[in-house]
């Protein structure tokens, strides 16, 4: 009798211990995610070449054109204010010539574009947006040499009333960041690198003919694709493709091997993809060159995502794949999307309205998708495209940041009707991803960046 009681009591004690352990674990297992962990999907839509003031300078409550003060008055090489803005130049013409739609005596300062060209259907020439030229335009934070340095003359000071845009409505309903700067001085090529690696591409063996030359004071003597010490800063294409077959070899960048956010995510087992309009056609060499920009595909420059690699096959995808993943509920945890030419808002090649309609359609698809309840979408721009903005960027390092660009956070967790005045730059997107998935920073810039967290309200 005693033996049975002892055995029974031991079994009962063991059962109670197991039950206790299970009960103790249940609250943790049943606990819903909190804070950033509520985000199961971070989507980045990377538009083209618009400054904040160019599209959102009239947005109610934002730091807009009305606050421009002295930055509105453009000066010449000697620092003397122009009597009137330099004539608007149409760089689409060969050779470039004055754009006859615009008066030749525009007052010195920002002006509305709509009297001369519409938001829908209106095209301009391209505006210079290169590494050294943007630094000269910023003019130590005075923001007053945009017209002087630009190849488009007074056009740089033009801006739209963006209130008819569908994305303006998204900015009103969700969060608009009005202190978001593109990470690096200059153009799209360099800023796409900073989006994925917080780094500048290396070309230490670049031929002399493509290197810039500076005088002893650091002033530009001869422009180039590469800095004197071997960093590629102006537009190049990946040597291993896809690339424009007509491009001279000295404009091709050798494969890069720095760590990227994609590498970090893969190491953690986190799913991700970089989607691009026209990607499948570009790889098949059937894409129209006017519709696809090879330098907008940053992962394609890296060895680990070169032709024939598993990395390219698994992670670099087309717009059709993006739409299918949205609709089928198969979006990866991190998704980047690059619109192709014609719908990316790039001056010279498309209008604002076409890209606005395209991205608004994608946002509606995401809002109606299975992933919406746990998704954050960041809609921003690679760089300012040469357009003036009145807010001086913070001084951080030799690479930037550059000028201010629009950034909208669309999410069930985004603060509603909120203007986020926190200082961000492109690497803030990396910081958000790193914070959410427990990833080490790629460099000093993203390590110190604000991670867009002020744009969210995850509740108690």
Could you please describe the fold and organization of this structure?
Strand 2 and strand 3 form a beta hairpin. The chain has 460 residues and is of the alpha/beta class. It is globular and about 105 Å long. The longest helix has 29 residues. Strands 13-12-14-1-15-16-6-17 form an 8-stranded mixed β-sheet, sandwiched between helices. The chain has 13 helices and 18 strands.
Give the key terms.
single chain, 460 residues, alpha/beta, 8-stranded mixed sheet, two-stranded antiparallel sheet, 13 helices, 13% strand, globular
| Strands in their spatial order, largest beta sheet | 13-12-14-1-15-16-6-17
Radius of gyration: 25 Å
Q: What percentage of amino acids are in beta strands?
A: 5-15%
Number of helices: 13
Total count of strands = 18
Secondary-structure topology with pairs:
Elements: H1 2-30, E1 41-47, H2 52-56, E2 89-90, E3 97-98, E4 111-112, H3 131-138, H4 146-149, E5 158-159, H5 166-173, E6 175-177, E7 180-181, H6 188-197, E8 213-214, E9 220-222, E10 237-238, E11 252-253, H7 261-267, E12 272-276, H8 279-283, H9 310-315, E13 316-318, H10 319-328, E14 334-338, H11 352-367, E15 375-381, E16 407-410, E17 418-420, E18 424-425, H12 427-437, H13 444-448
Parallel strand pairs: 1-14, 1-15, 4-5, 6-17, 7-18, 10-11, 12-13, 12-14
Antiparallel strand pairs: 2-3, 6-16, 8-9, 15-16
